[in-house]
Amino acid sequence: MNPPQRKHVKAWLWPLGIILAAAGVAAALMLTQQPPPTMEEGPREPLVETLTVESGTHQLEIAVQGPITAARRVVIQPQVAGRLDWIHPDLEPGGVVEAGEALLRIEDDDFRLAVQEQQSRVTEADAQLRLELGRGKVAERELEMFRGEFSQDASPDLALRVPQRETARSRLDAARVALEQARLQLSRTEVTAPFTGWVEREQAALGQLVSAQADVATLVAASHFWLQVSVERERLAHIAIPGVTADSGAEVEIHYPLDERTLTRRGKVVRLLGDLSPQGRMARLLIRIDDPLRLEHPDDELRGIPLLLDSFVEASIIGPRMDNLIELPRRALHEGERAYVVEADNTLAVRDLDIVWRRRESVLVRSGLKGGERVVLSPLPFAFEGMPVRLEAPKGRVQEGGNE
What we know:
Low-confidence stretches: 396-404
CATH class of the largest domain: Mainly Beta
Number of strands: 22
CATH superfamily of the largest domain: Efflux pump adaptor protein, beta barrel domain
GO cellular component, one term: efflux pump complex
Coiled coil: 165-192
Oligomer: single chain
Keywords: Coiled coil, Membrane, Transmembrane, Transmembrane helix
InterPro entries: BSH_CzcB-like, RND_pump_MFP
Strand content: 25-35%
GO molecular function: efflux transmembrane transporter activity
Strand order of the largest sheet: 3-12-15-14-13-16
Number of helices: 4
Shape: elongated
Order of helices and strands: HEEEEEEEHHHEEEEEEEEEEEEEEE
Structural class: alpha+beta
CATH topology of the largest domain: Elongation Factor Tu (Ef-tu), domain 3
CATH architecture of the largest domain: Beta Barrel
Distance between the termini: 107 Å
C-alpha cells in the first residue's frame, strides 16, 4: 500500500473508532442500569370522614337581634316659675334617683306668702258667713213678731237675709278654693321623680331662673327596658306569645359584650307587634327586660351597669323541647337537604332529610336518619348510591339532647 492510500485509510478509521467506543459505553450503561420500580396502584375509593349520630331531645332556640329602647322616658318640667335653690346631687347624666325623691326645689317664699294671704281671706270669709248667719236669726225673730204687718206679696227670703247668707257662703267657698290653689302651687316648688330611673339628660343649674314647663332633665325608667326583634313569620308558631300562642311569654336570653366579657340578661316575650319590619317584612316581637340596671340585686357585681339604650344586641328566644330529633352539622348536608350514610359494607346510601329546625352551625332532622348511623362529613362532588368508600378514624357520637 502506497503512502497516499495509507493516509486515506487513517482518515476514516479515526471516526469509526470513536463511534464504536461511544456505542460500547452506551451499551455498558444500558446493561448496568436498574429497571424503574413499578408503582403499585392504590385503592380508588375516596377517604371520608364520618360522624355517628344519635336521636335525642333538643331545646329549640330562635336567634334574634334588635335595639334596646326605653320603656318609659319622661322630660322633667317644673309647673311653676322661680329660681332653683336646691338640686338633687344625682340629678346629672348617669345618676340614679328613686321614685318620689325630690329632684329640685324652687324658692318658695312668694308661694308661702300667697298661702298665708289666702288663709287670711278664708278666715275673713268665714267670719262674714257667721255674722250673716247671726243676722238671719235676728231677722227670723223679727219676722215672727211683725208677721201681720208684712204684705202677702213680700218675699220671706229677703226678710230672712237668705241672699246675703248665700253670698257669704259662696265667698267662703271661693276663699277655700284659692287657699287650696295656693297650697298646690307651694307644693309644686318641689319637683319629685315620678319613678325610679336614671338621668339621661340634665339642663338645670343652681340659682337658675326657670319658667313653668321648661325642660330641666330627662329621666328613663329603670324598672324595665324594651327589646324589639324581628322574626321569620313561619317561626312564630314555635314561640310562646301571650294572647296569641300561649298564656305566658317565652323566656329570652340577651347577650351583649362588655370589655372582654359577654353579659347575659333575662327577658320575656310580652307582645306581638301589629306591623311588619320595614326591612325584610318580618314579624316583630316586643321583649321586656326587667331591672336592666340590676338595682334590685345589691350584691350583684354588675349592679348599676346598664343595658345601653339604642344598642344593638343579640338574643335567643327559648322555644319548646322536641323529642326524637337528630342534630347534624351543616357540612354534612349535600344537595340542599340530603345526607350520605355509610352502610355496613362501606358503601354510600343517599338519604333525603326532613329538617324541622335550622341552627347557625347545625340542623335538626326528624326523619331520614337513624340513631347509630354513620353520616359522611367530607365533601363528595361525584357521590352516588352504592359508591364504595374508605373511612377515617371515627369522630364519636353526637351527644343526645345537645343545644346550639
